[in-house]
């Protein structure tokens, strides 16, 4: 197997396992990883327009996140409010219940990060980050993440 192919499969394997663990940990909250990411972004940056949210989502990069938002609105976690500066737009904000779930999502994500830190141990992360950032900068999901880092 070529090294670049192995790298691709290693990234895929780790992404799938991390997403599986995250989905399992989010299940008691009644959230999917995509919904959790959306709540987290809103908690950090609300209010956001639907387009503004879509520009930063990694789970739905390059697409309109309206499907996720519709489910969160139906669940009473997100509300749509008219944008006072542009009546053609709506702003997305968290409800009190949404804010509480977003706080719980942070706790779930912290447990996942703790497991990753245990797997990494004392090895340096910076070289891997540099490689992955350079690669991700070339694709829409990577650019969405870059916008979040600011």
From TrEMBL:
PANTHER family the record matches: HTH-TYPE TRANSCRIPTIONAL REPRESSOR YETL (PTHR33164:SF43), TRANSCRIPTIONAL REGULATOR, MARR FAMILY (PTHR33164)
Pfam families reported for this sequence: MarR_2
Protein name: MarR family transcriptional regulator
GO molecular function: DNA-binding transcription factor activity
Chain ranges of the HTH marR-type domain: 4-137
GO biological process, one term: response to stress
